[in-house]
Amino acid sequence: MLNNMETERRNNSKNEDSRMRGFRPSLSAMMFVVAVIWIGVAALYGLLKPISNGCIMTYMYPTYIPISTTENVSSAKYGLYLYHEGWKKIDFTEHLKKLNGIPLLFIPGNGGSYKQARSLAAESDRAYQGGPLERTFYREAHVDMADIQLPNQYANRLDWFAVDLEGEHSAMDGRILEEHTEYVVYAIHRILDQYKESHDARESDGTATTGSLPKSVILIGHSMGGFVARAATIHPRLRKSAVKTILTLSSPHQAPPLALQPSLGDYYESINQEWQKGYEVQTTRTGRYVSGPKLSNVVVVSISGGYNDYQVRSKLESLDGIVPPTHGFMISSTSMKNVWLSMEHQTILWCNQLVVQVSHTLLSLLDSTTGQPFPETQKRLAIFTKMLHSEIPQSFNWKMQPQSSWSTRVPAKDIKDTAVPEVHTLSDCPSSFHWNDDILERDLYIQTTTVTILAMDGRRRWLDIQNLGANGKSHFIFVTNLAPCSGVRVHLWPQKGKSSSDLPAGRGVLEVTSKMVQIPAGPAPRQVEPGSQTEQAPPSAVLHLAPEEMNGFRFLTISVAPRPTISGRPPPATSMAVGQFFNPDEGKIEFTPVSMLQSVHSHKDIFLKEDHPLAFNLSFAVSLGLLPVGFSLKTAGCGIKDSGILDEAGDTGNAKLCKLRCFPPVALAWDPTSGLHVFPNLYSETLLVDSSPALWTSTGTEKTTVLLLLDPHCAYKASIAVSVTTAASRFWLLYFSQIIGFCVAVIFFALMRQAHARPIPSILKAVESNLRIPFPFLPFFLVPILFSLFFSFLSSQPFPPFSSFTIVSLICYLLANGIVILLILVSHLGFYVAAYLHVFIKTRWQLWEGNFGFLFLRWFMNLSSRFLSLKVVRVLRANPLFVPVSAAIILSTFVHPALGLFILLLSHALCCHSSLCNSLTASFRSNARKKESDYRTEDNSLSQQFKPKPGSPSKENSSSYIQTQEDTFHLRHGLLVLHLLATLMFVPSLVSWLQRIGMHQSFPRFLDSFLCICLILHGIYSSESLLNSELPFPRIMGKEVRLNSIYLIAGFYSYLSGMALAPYKALYAMGAVGIIAFALSILQAWTGATRFGRRRHWHRH
Predict the structure, then answer these.
(1) φ/ψ (deg, to 5) at 448
(2) Does pTM surpass 0.85?
(3) At residue 1091, what are phi and psi to the nearest 5 degrees?
(4) Span 293-327, pLDDT tens digits
(5) What does the DSSP assignment read for 463-513?
(6) DSSP 8-state class, residue 953
């Protein structure tokens, strides 16, 4: 007897331990949770840090003129406005009657307002009145059309219209995006009709009319408005050729920023596929020609905000695979001419530097003869290229880069019988810049490889290419803040002479001034008092001459224009130019992945002595878009040796003295995705580019090349370290979609283990078991990667860089496991707290049941029992699934899918709570009986509390009943975590739906409702009996495919969806599993399939 009691006590103790082990995470699981929390906090800190973008605010005097709409418009809640700039009050009717400019339609983005068009519209009006930008003589971007000439005066003004989309969140719901597209199509037609109405009104009044009516509208879209512009362009109801030019600002074209809703992702894919077909020749199935490309006359330009735009990455703003390079391009604001800044998502609408450049670009599209935009597609694209692109090279590999990237060789011309001062006739500098004998004073002959100019002294420096370019120093680089032609000129001479008669026949002087490339200069130093010395000004131009370009010439001259003196003193040293013959190999510094990772905890220092190369080529093996580095530069000396001045001044004085002598450092980083990133006045900065490396679609090298320009007269100490907070924030921004897809895969893998193992383990233990190395962790992690490479091979797509792709996928997979474990622990803790409270209150209720104060409650319970005895209620109680299933399906179909999923989560939660309470109650009753047997006490309160009631299981105190309840809890808990993640994916769409309450609303998209109904069926009809039923599953390679195999396939599909940055496709896998589970449940009920024999008793050891 005693032995039996001891055995039973030991078994119950094991049951209690096993139940707690299902809740207690392992050490590895806690490490994943800690890693997720730490990276999340670091990323949040990096994202919340204030950003200094350097933008200047744009000011305006806005007036918005409403445009009347017809009554039969489906989206009557939206509106259309015309912008007017000016502080004077105007008559709207008369203003519309005078409408005769070029129509532009501004489309706001997610949650945006039509009033956001005010900055662009105001600057466009100022640009039209003030005329084109002042011409500079830096090298411009190369265009194929040589006859492109920018106008000296703009031909017509721009009329800015804007649609009022009620600030709806179009980035969160596909249905809203479609409604916006339909209204924009109507707005385009209404704008064109308004011009005709204005023209007819002027004719009826006898007012003279000039020019032709516009036939197309230029679309300007911000954020999701850019995608809406593209969607409207291919809308079947849009008039032919109504849109020919599209300019987008921070617009996601490849995929939505939050690719969580299936209908949103599906709409994106359909629009992008139509655009791909739109640039193809239309043929029949037999290959017979039908018509040319539908979009052959449409030009699209996408402007991204760069690395400071946290909402939309440059990778999503790319037009690759959507618009061919012959009809559009993407450019980052960091590489835009006269802008050179990265800006936030909303800042791009008011940043004056960008707004001014865009306004002049749009005005330059107008033909001076017709006053309308150029009809030729290539001419419009060439103007965009000329106005937006700079000629800064796309690569800094001096030896391998093509010659045309820095400069194009200009044929030399003879200057027979012409004196040297008249060499200007041979250059691209205008004839208005005359350099005569009175301007150029005596010549200077430079004997060192480095030449420095600290003032506009009106002298010409001669450099012997043959002597100074020896010993491998065959390249020449020149940086300056002097304007080309007016401030400095550079020539190549075959040999020294004072006139062309002294030169051999057929040889002449070649001016290369126009090959200077403009770079952004930081703020110029302020002069304290006239004539005083100031800090050196930052460079604004750079010129590089390769050995091939100097071949055949002996001398290089640098001529500097004079500047009037101030109060009889020399001009202040704010004019700067430094040139150097150098060897590119001496300036190469490479950072391996190991050295970059080591710099996280220990800075990597580089010491540069005086007379170092002017240009350094820094190569980072890991993209700075993934591992941004903090770059710190300190001056250690500036050529003042053995004078004692630096010793007396100290470190602070040393830095001040050196800033008077050396120009501020400049860094230029190039990324193949987002283009150029310039960091002027570089003393302490985080070097960052907006790249998206290590993705499935990534191709080519992922290295980041940085050109560092340092004054060779100064010695520097450079310190480089990876910025942890910036790297964490970049990682979450780049791979958030991938991690979401991996989270769904992790849950599917855990459900697979639950469906395979007996007894059913907790979802937490299932996740932990899948992390065991080498099996099953490696197959779950590596098989989808191998599948992705195989699919790339089948589709003839280039392979991503395997090492970085695998490492980043591994980190994302581990983070996904940590997120899932965190969700499980939080939900598990909530269930246990609720269950213990429930059991505690229930036991106390039984003790207080006879108390007089509870007579009213007992009366109420009796009344409730009468209600429950009604026939309708009895039918519903006999079919407990009818109410939740019906409510969830109705809500998903007619209201919003997320509401139906909330009902499903509630059903899961109630089932988990009931099972856990039953398990705890049975365990407590069993313990109470043991104590009663051990101590033989009378009237034991615990035995009274847990006295078995009629109808309760006869073996409630047995481990079998407890095990059954635990299995039910673990199964439902796993489904709850899966469907909780699915519900969270629909939450953004639910937020946008809640915003539209009270306005005209339509039914949810069929795709969303159908998938949610499948999820509901999966949650309601998945049970333990389905896992063990004898059903005719198909066989593959002689092995029976069961539900665990289906979960495995769904997990692999979700994994691939995450790598494709389309996590919404994981909902397709959930829907497919739901359909299979529902079909198997119906088949089980139809065939009466039984379980695999009797239920086995699970013994834990």
Answers:
(1) -110, 165
(2) yes
(3) -75, 170
(4) 999 999 999 999 999 999 999 999 999 999 999 99
(5) EEHHHHT-TT--EEEEEESSPBTTTEEEEEESS--SBGGGSPTT---EE-G
(6) -
